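Work package 3, deliverable 3.1, input record:
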Amino acid sequence: MSIEISKEICIGCGQCAQICPGTLIRLGDTGKAFISHAERCWGCASCVKECPVQAIAMFLGEDAGGLGGRLTVRRENTLLHWIITMPDGEKQIITLDSRDANKY
Ligand code: SF4
Ligand code: SF4
């Protein structure tokens, strides 16, 4: 499982690099984020949730039931909108309130 960072969308805030528990993300010479050693990414999605402009997408392979889809997250105050985009463009959105994170 790995992520993809869009250089076109990235604004170079560095939040993903700070949050990655494996220190796998860095800012390059252009100030844009990139992942080093993508094979070490274990798909925790922390960077995906942290990016304020949805520049990071996680690949959802068949093993994750995603059949090649991509996952991005849009924050809206305490709400997290988990957006799954399938290869044919179809989208599914799951909204969770981060205040409920420890509820269950
Ligand atoms: S998904 Fe987790 S491990 Fe992978 S790059 Fe993002 S923060 Fe790091
Ligand atoms: S959090 Fe998003 S915008 Fe900020 S550096 Fe990372 S990819 Fe770029």
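Helices lie at 15-19, 46-50.
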